[in-house]
Structure formats: structure tokens, C-alpha cells
Design a protein that fits this description.
12 strands, mainly beta, 6-stranded antiparallel β-sheet, about 170 residues, 6-stranded mixed β-sheet
């Protein structure tokens, strides 16, 4: 079973292209081109399902046309319209020119030097200029913590913990 915290969102399918089952795909990370995973993942009925890529070609710097295995016509491709596309973290290869995508940290625990363990990163809110970690707290609440490199003291990838030194008063906002 594939879990959400094992995945990185890399884009979204748009509409079918042509009659052979190709799908237009707007990507935020071209890791599918340089990574080792033979598949991408989509969430269908709240289940993360792998789909193998038969072939692809770039249309622009942010758009590609993908042909998935066993998707052979426009009607089959239409079912993928507007679905988010994910890539398995275990196959993720960072591009030297890009920073690690924020989605990578979903499922990590946030620990502050002063306040200790705060909770688990549940989502990323990038609707404003300053992206935020949406942290689910143990008491069922939610914290919004700015994704600022200056607040991060260490990242333990094996234990999946982000050690932070947050400014006084930030947690009371």
C-alpha cells in the first residue's frame, strides 16, 4: 500500500491530447525524466495508485505529454484529467539546480529547541508568498510554521525529524 507521506507531488494532469491516450501533464519537477522510478502515482478514490509510463515527450519547460501503460484512447485518458501526480520519495533524485520540494517533508515531525516536539507536517500551504508547514499537533490542533531556512537547525532524514529554533512568540500567533 502506498502512503501519502511516501510521495512528492510533482504536478497535475490536464486534458487528453489526441486519440492515442496521451495526457497533457503540467509538472513542477521533472524528476520523472531523471529519476529511476518506472511509475508515477495518482490518488483515485483516496487510494494512491501507481501508473507505469509507456512514453513521454516534453511540450514546453513545464508541460509534457505522457502515455501511460494500458491507457489507449481519449476516453480512458479523460479519467485522469485534473488529478495530482506524485512521485515516490525513495526514487527521488534532486536536481542540482533546484531545492528539495517542500512536499518532501510531509510526514516529518517538527521539533523546536525550546518547546520540544510540536507535531507532524500534514501539508504545505503555499497560497501566500511565504510557504508554511501545516503541522498537526498531538492535541488535534494545527500550527502554521513558516518554511524558513534560518529557523532550521538540522534535518534527520532517517528519523524524519526537522529540528527548528523558532522565534519567541511565533507559536502564539
Amino acid at each position: 500500500m502506498i502512503l501519502r507521506d511516501e510521495l512528492i507531488r510533482i504536478g497535475q494532469f490536464n486534458k487528453p491530447h489526441g486519440v492515442r491516450g496521451e495526457i497533457s501533464f503540467t509538472f513542477t519537477d521533472d524528476v520523472f525524466d531523471r529519476g529511476e522510478s518506472p511509475y508515477i502515482v495518482c490518488c483515485i478514490d483516496n487510494i494512491y495508485v501507481p501508473f507505469f509510463i509507456e512514453e513521454y515527450r516534453f511540450k514546453s519547460g513545464t508541460t509534457a505529454l505522457l502515455k501511460l501503460v494500458d491507457v489507449n484512447d481519449e476516453n480512458e485518458a479523460r479519467a485522469f484529467s485534473n488529478l495530482d501526480v506524485f512521485y515516490p520519495k525513495r526514487f527521488y533524485i534532486e536536481d542540482e539546480d533546484d531545492a528539495t520540494p517542500d512536499d518532501y517533508f510531509i510526514g516529518y515531525t517538527i521539533s523546536d529547541i525550546t518547546h520540544g516536539e510540536l507535531g507532524v507536517v500534514d501539508a504545505i500551504d503555499d497560497s501566500t508568498i511565504n510557504a508554511l508547514f501545516v503541522v498537526a499537533t498531538p492535541d488535534g490542533g494545527e500550527l502554521l510554521i513558516p518554511i524558513q531556512e534560518t529557523f532550521v537547525r538540522a534535518i534527520d532524514e532517517e528519523a524524519r525529524i526537522i529540528h527548528m529554533d523558532l522565534p519567541d512568540g511565533l507559536l502564539q500567533l
